[in-house]
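In response to the reviewer comment on reproducibility (Comment 2.3), we provide here a single inverse folding case reported in full, input and output, so that an independent group could reproduce the run without further information from us. The structure tokens appear first.
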């Protein structure tokens, strides 16, 4: 996402900020205006960079648990912000390790919702969807799994079902998540990546399954009526062959997973390019078969055509990977975009624009 500035002193701040490290004023993110507001010393009114006051309060999850820095309108029908109102189940906070991990999960989820809002995608809670008849709502269950904590087989599987995204709290433990990544043979595993992938399943049902796009989907991704359970068993049993038509090995398992993986990669691209563009980043001419006269993000990635996204993403991803390697870290983006994958990304991008 683009960088944000403290509305009081204009210092750049991270999206998770609550107190400006420069001026010390309390900050809160206002999703309605896509900006931070501030509270001055002893003040009770949230103000923007121009000094105008706004009728907002902190999200209930900040008051009760200290895990949110978003604001909600005083006239809103819920005391929870645009992201927290989708929580159906929060973890058992009496367990000492849980509050910190839940905080990490909520931080990743807020980044997801920022992107969904900027893309203009429909975001309804289950209650809103039922009331308005707009389709399938979105909810989250964040669950503590004692057996997973004991390094046994997890009893709670991260996944999506009917608009409900379940996340095992063990995923917020960096060491455990890395162990799982290695066991699964994955090149990449993060909390934000989980959210972007699982919400892709939600939008498949919302935009494809219930959106009259089945035939166009099958023309790109294949027949989704293939038995899903059998497909996953075949994948984990080593029955699938990965080709460059798929962005990852897991995407080969079933057309639903291929779509979710592709959806996540679209979100990876637009959000990272928006960050690069917000900092005014540009590169020298990029030579080779994918030559570019001088990559820079001089457009809005959240509303860009796929060709524009990919043409900038390829050289910037190479540069970011090189930076990571200079720090002794794995590649930031350990994937390759073939023409077949770009075609799939273009299909998903078209769905998003239509929605």
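Designed residues, in position order:
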């Amino acid at each position: 996402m683009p960088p944000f500035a403290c509305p009081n002193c204009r210092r750049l701040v991270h999206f998770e900020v609550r107190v400006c490290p420069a001026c010390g004023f309390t900050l809160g993110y206002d999703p309605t205006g896509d900006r931070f507001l501030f509270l001055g010393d002893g003040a009770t009114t949230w103000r923007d960079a121009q000094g105008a006051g706004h009728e907002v309060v902190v999200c209930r999850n900040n008051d009760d648990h200290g895990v949110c820095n978003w604001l909600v309108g005083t006239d809103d029908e819920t005391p929870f912000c645009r992201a927290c109102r989708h929580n159906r189940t929060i973890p058992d906070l009496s367990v000492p390790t849980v509050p910190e991990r839940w905080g990490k999960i909520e931080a990743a989820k807020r980044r997801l919702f920022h992107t969904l809002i900027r893309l203009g995608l429909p975001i309804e809670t289950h209650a809103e969807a039922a009331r308005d008849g707009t389709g399938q709502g979105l909810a989250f269950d964040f669950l503590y799994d004692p057996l997973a904590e004991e390094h046994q087989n997890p009893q709670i599987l991260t996944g999506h079902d009917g608009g409900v995204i379940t996340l095992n709290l063990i995923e917020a433990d960096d060491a455990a998540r890395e162990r799982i990544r290695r066991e699964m043979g994955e090149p990449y595993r993060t909390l934000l990546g989980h959210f972007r992938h699982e919400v892709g399943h939600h939008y498949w049902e919302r935009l494809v399954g219930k959106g009259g796009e089945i035939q166009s989907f099958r023309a790109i991704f294949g027949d989704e009526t293939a038995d899903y359970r059998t497909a996953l068993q075949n994948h984990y049993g080593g029955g699938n062959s990965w080709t460059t038509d798929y962005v990852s090995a897991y995407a080969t398992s079933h057309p639903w997973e291929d779509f979710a993986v592709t959806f996540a990669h679209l979100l990876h691209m637009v959000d990272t390019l928006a960050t690069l563009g917000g900092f005014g980043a540009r590169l020298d001419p990029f030579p080779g078969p994918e030559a570019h006269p001088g990559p820079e993000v001089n457009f809005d990635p959240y509303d860009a055509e796929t060709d524009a996204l990919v043409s900038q993403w390829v050289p910037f991803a190479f540069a970011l990977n090189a930076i990571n390697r200079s720090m002794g870290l794995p590649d930031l983006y350990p994937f390759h975009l073939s023409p077949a994958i770009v075609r799939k990304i273009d299909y998903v991008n078209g769905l998003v624009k239509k929605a």
